[in-house]
Structure formats: C-alpha cells, structure tokens
Design brief:
The complex is a heterodimer of chains A (about 350) and B (about 300). By secondary structure, chain A is mainly alpha-helical. Chain A is about 70% helix and about 0% strand. Chain B is built from ten helices and four strands. In chain B, a hairpin with a 2-residue loop joins strand 2 and strand 3. Chain B is globular and about 60 Å long. Classes of the chains: A mainly alpha (about 350), B mainly alpha (about 300). At the A-B interface, helix 6, helix 10, helix 12 and helix 14 of A face helix 3, helix 4, helix 8 and helix 10 of B.
C-alpha cells in the first residue's frame, strides 16, 4: 500500500483540482494556468525522449504540436459542431464526450506519423544536421498549413469552444481540465514505461554511442523511429489539448519561438530526467504567468524612486528579457539543469518507499 | 530570358545576405562545434548599430553621405564584433570552462538571441526605424534588365568576404590555429596556442561579417525591426548546414543556393509557398547528402 501512496496522492490532487474548479474556487485564469502547466509538462517530457534520453538535438517540436492542434480541431469541429466546411455536424454534438478523446488520440497518431519526416532522415544524419531537419520540418508544417485555405490558412481556425461547450451541456463539469490532467498522466506514464523497459533502454544506448549500440544488437533505426514517433505523437496530443483549451489556433503560434520554449523547458529540467522536465515545465509556466504581475509592480517601484523617465513604462516585452536572463544565470551556476540526469528518487532515496512508478 | 537574368541577380543579392550570415555560423561552428543561435540577432544588432552610426554622422555631425558610408562600414563591423565578443565572454566562455554539455551552450546562445531581440524591442519600442539613404541610387539598364549599384556592391561584398575568410583560414597562422582547434581542442593548448584568443578572433570575424551583412541589408531594405534577424538567422543556419557546416565554401554556396531556391520559388509559385518549397528542397539535399554538400562524414572509432 505504501508503495502506491505517491500515485494515490497524484490522483487525489487531480481530483481536488477538478472539484475546486467545479465549485468555482479556482477562477478561469488559474484554471487555464493549470491546464497550460499540464500541456507544457507533456511537451517538455515528450521532447526529453528525443533530446534527453536519445541525445539527439531536435528543435522543431512545435511543428508536431501544430499538426496535432490542427488535426484535432478540424476533426472535432467537423464532427461535433456547426462549421463552414460541411455545415451541419456529422455526429450529434452530445457525443463529443466520447468522441473527444478519440479525436485527441487520432491527432496524436497523425502527429506521430508526421514525425517520420524527421525520423527517416535521422537514420543517416547525425548530431547537428538533425537540428536543421527538425527546424526545416517545423517551417514546412507551418508553411503547409498556412497554404491550406479551407482551414483558415494564416488567419487561423476556431470553433473548438463550441465543441467544449457541447460537452459541458451534457454533463456540467470542467471537461478540459479533466482531459488535460488525464493526458498529462497518460503521457508521463507512457514515457516512463517506454524508457524504463528493456526495449526502450536502446534509446539510452544510442545516446551513449550509436555505433556501439548498433553492435550490441540495438536496432538503431527502429529505436529512433519509435522515439521520434512517440515524441512527436505526444506533442500532437499536447497540441490538441492546447487548441481546445484556447479555442483558437493560428499557425504562427507554433513557430520556432514555441519550439524554443519546449527546448528551454527540457534543458532547464535536465537532459534525461523526467522529473526534471515536469518540474521545469511547472516552474517555467508559473514564472511566465507571475511576471505578468511582477513587471507592472517593478515599473511602479522604479517610478517611485525616479530611476525611469516618467514617459517610459516597462512593457510586458521585458518578460522575454528577464526569463532568458534568469536561464542564462541558472546555466552559469548549474550547467546541467535543475536535476541533472537524475530522477526524484535518486536525489531523495527516502522517496523510494512511496514510489513505484515504472 | 530577361526575367530569368533579373531573377538570377535578385537571387544573387538575396543569397549574399544568407552567405554573409552563414559564414559567421560556420566559422564559430567549425572552431567550437557550437551552433551560435544568437548569430541572427547579432545580424539584427549590426543593422541597428549601422542605423545609429549613420544617423549620428548624417544628422548630428552633418557629414556628406559618402564620408558617412566610409565611416559607417568599419565602425559597424567593429561595434558588432564587440557585441559578439561580449556574448562569448559573458555567456559561452564560463560554460565552456565548466565543461558543460555542448547543448547547454547552444541553449544559452538561444537565450542570448532572445535577450538581444526582445531587449531591443523593449528599449527602442515597436516603431520601425527608417534607414537613411547613404548611396545615391544608380540604376543600370540593359534591355529589360535593371541593376542598382547597391545590388552589385552587395554581391561583390559577399564574394570579397568569402575570399578574405578563405585566405585567413587557409593561409595565415591564426587560421591554422583555428583549424587546429576544430581538429583537436585538447591537444592544441599543449602546443602553446592561446585557445581563448583564437576563439575570440573567430567571434570577431563572424560578428563583423554579420555586422556588414546587417549594414548592407539595411541599405537594401531600409526598414529595421527587432525581429528581422530571427527568421533570416535560422535560414542562414540551414544554408550553412546544407553547404556542410564548418566549411567556408559550403556556407557560401549554401547561402547562395538558398537564395536561388527562394527567389526561384517566388518567381514560379505564389510567395506564400516559399518556405514550404525551400525547406522541402533543403531536406531532400540533406537526405541525399547527409553531411551537406562539402561536409565530410566523420568516422567514429570504438
């Protein structure tokens, strides 16, 4: 029983979050922050499979997120809501509760298949050349979607809020919160199961030495394909959830900037540390949101002591100066990221009593 | 035929910018094996420095445009080089000393780029700057082909820089030291070569070229904005890799190749398809030749 206390605690926390948002104790802003934390956890941990565990440098993660977001939103809007592609919904909207997870899984699968654009060239290319392929893949996905006019092109795509509303019409509970939490738990569980399995250990072998791994009978091509497809598929799931939380998607919101955010989260947490990814996703999202309130406070503070000229006000752009600065400073003092390549029970061995999560 | 030649000239000009920036990427990568993701933003900083220097000399000191241009070129290159070296000194060198994993240095470079572009946006505001006109525009027309003098200057500058760098890297002592560091970073200090000053010199060269590219870009497309370096920087990096990163000829060729592909796509298809086609073609090149056009496959011994 003691072994499971961590899992029970986790599910308990999820339940508390859902109940709190149901009774209205958490306002919509805090709810959305929590959902973004969940989505960022999926993103950073899935990118960690490629960048951390496999040791390749993939920096176009947002491209796959984009595929997931668009596939899921187009599917869910076509199936469950009035739209300007087919007009009437193909299925009755109250089926959205059952249909939505299927749509998310399908979008994850499609994003996983898109991951093949990166996976197949990666058999021959190594190291930094792969970084380009991933950047190029990111640009290609965005550019392709911008040129499909049926789904909005550069104007973006909306209408997912109606699908979410049709879910709450049937049973009035915070559905998106539930889906995000389930998605987060599922993806962490999948990644954990994958990298700790005998099969998945091949990924870590590739990160150590690819040629040696090949000699030790690791099928490196197959492993790479599995890792890339898992990683991009989960990014697709994250994108699907992201699209439905926001209710609006735009190709440019999945550009290199978003990929950079994913990279930052992975390296902030530490390569090859799932706990680190989770921790850094939480910290990063909170930092982003907290600066929204801290910057005006600093602004008024500096104006009080008359350091700044009266006409100049600190804008929210400073957020994107302060965050990179913090990260650079952090890198100077802890160059291996927050957790290095260790997991939580490695740092606190006492936790192993409560922790059986493979 | 005329349209073809006109497009070729446009592609040469467009490719020159990519080539100039890609040269900076390839120099730093060749020596340090570091993808200096801040390089595109150093290009942007170069354009802004050129703007401030030029407006200072034109407006405040009131020099003639020709004198201003003659002063702006070296000053921009010098100041941009100073920015590049500062980044190296503050952000990369401490990490290198600590022996951090290579990718963490790359992430630091990304962060430096973000700081440069957003710091610029936060300090100078979102209003776009109009670059003053330094050259009297002369248009040479042959039949239906028209060439501005600026276009010729840009293309020649790129070619001159290429030959200069090729000369420095292959014929001089410091170039030999650079090649040595890229060959074996641990044995080179034992030979009495000051590794840090060679690296600083590399950054000086790369950033000065980015500054020159920024100046020429600002003269050709005289609207400056803080994010102008981001996209062109990523693309130049891709160009450098397609040419075979770490190789100067490769960077040069890759830059022009990307320029030709982009202008060619825009000439045939609607311009929204530019990125899609350009990157698909580059991906295919990398698929066929995984280490780039001039790259040499590394053999690994176990």
């Amino acid at each position: 029983m003691q072994k499971y206390s961590f899992n029970i605690g986790l599910w308990g926390m999820a339940l508390i979050l859902v109940v709190l948002s149901q009774i209205g104790a958490l306002d919509f802003y805090i709810q959305s922050v929590i959902m973004f934390i969940g989505i960022n956890i999926i993103l950073s941990s899935s990118l960690n499979v490629v960048n951390g565990y496999m040791g390749e440098f993939s920096c176009g993660h947002a491209g796959f997120m984009c595929v997931g977001a668009y596939v899921s939103s187009v599917l869910s809007v076509i199936l469950f809501s009035q739209n300007n592609i087919f007009g009437a919904p193909l299925l009755p909207p109250h089926l959205a509760i059952v249909g939505f997870p299927i749509v998310v899984i399908i979008s994850g699968l499609v994003a996983g298949v898109t991951g093949l654009i990166v996976a197949i060239p990666s058999f021959k290319t190594r190291g930094d050349y792969l970084a380009i392929i991933t950047i190029a893949a990111n640009y290609m996905v965005i550019s392709a979607i911008e040129n499909i006019d049926v789904i909005g092109g550069p104007r973006g795509f909306m209408g997912m809020k109606r699908v979410v509303n049709s879910m709450t019409d049937v049973v009035n509970i915070p559905w998106m919160m539930i889906w995000v939490i389930l998605g987060t738990f599922m993806s962490i569980w999948m990644i954990r199961r994958f990298v700790s399995s005998t099969y998945g250990k091949g990924i870590m072998a590739i990160s150590q030495d690819e040629v040696a791994a090949e000699i030790m009978s690791v099928n490196t091509n197959k492993m790479k394909m599995a890792a890339f497809m898992l990683s991009s598929g989960l990014a697709g799931v994250a994108g699907a959830l992201f699209a439905h939380v926001l209710g609006y998607v735009n190709p440019q919101s999945f550009n290199i900037m978003k990929s950079t955010e994913c990279l930052v989260m992975v390296y902030l947490g530490g390569m090859g540390s799932l706990g680190g990814s989770v921790l850094s996703a939480i910290l990063f999202t909170l930092m982003l949101e907290l600066l929204r309130f801290i910057i005006p406070a600093i602004d008024t503070g500096l104006h009080l002591v008359n350091i700044l000229p009266v006409t100049y006000h600190l804008s929210q752009v400073w957020k994107w100066v302060l965050i990179p600065l913090t990260l650079i400073l952090l890198m100077q003092f802890r160059p291996e990221g927050l957790m290095g390549n260790k997991e939580l029970p490695d740092l606190f061995p006492g936790l192993k009593k409560f922790y059986k999560f493979k | 035929m005329d349209i073809l030649i006109q497009n070729l000239l446009n592609a040469l000009q467009w490719g020159s910018f990519y080539a100039l920036i890609a040269l900076g990427y390839t120099l730093v990568y060749g020596v340090l094996l570091l993808i200096n993701f801040a390089h595109g933003d150093i290009f942007m900083v170069g354009a802004y420095i050129a703007f401030f220097v030029a407006t200072f000399f034109l407006g405040i000191v009131d020099f003639s445009p020709w004198v201003t241009l003659a002063l702006t070129v070296p000053l921009t290159m010098l100041l941009t080089a100073a920015v590049g070296v500062t980044l190296e000194r503050i952000a990369y060198r401490p990490l290198r000393r600590k022996g951090a994993h290579r990718l963490y240095v790359v992430i630091t470079a990304l962060m430096c780029g973000l700081i440069l572009e957003n710091g610029n946006l936060a300090l100078l505001g979102a209003s776009r700057k109009k670059f003053p006109e330094l050259l009297d525009k002369v248009v040479y027309t042959y039949g239906n082909i028209s060439v501005t003098n600026l276009k010729i200057i840009v293309i020649f500058a790129a070619i001159a820089v290429f030959f200069l760098l090729e000369f420095i890297v292959t014929r001089t002592k410091i170039g030999m030291a650079m090649r040595g560091i890229s060959y074996d970073k641990f044995a080179i200090p034992l030979m009495g070569i000051p590794i840090d000053s060679v690296i600083v010199f590399t950054f000086v060269l790369g950033s000065a070229m980015a500054g020159l590219a920024g100046l020429l870009f600002a003269m050709s497309y005289p609207i400056l904005e803080p994010y102008m370096g981001a996209l062109i920087g990523w693309k130049a990096f891709i160009a450098a890799v397609v040419g075979g990163i770490g190789d100067i000829r490769g960077a040069f060729l890759g830059g022009f190749l990307l320029g030709f592909i982009e202008v060619g796509v825009v000439a045939v298809f609607p311009s929204t398809y530019r990125d899609l086609f350009a990157f698909s073609i580059l991906l295919m090149i990398l698929w066929i030749k995984p280490t780039g056009i001039f790259g040499v496959a590394k053999t690994t011994k176990i």
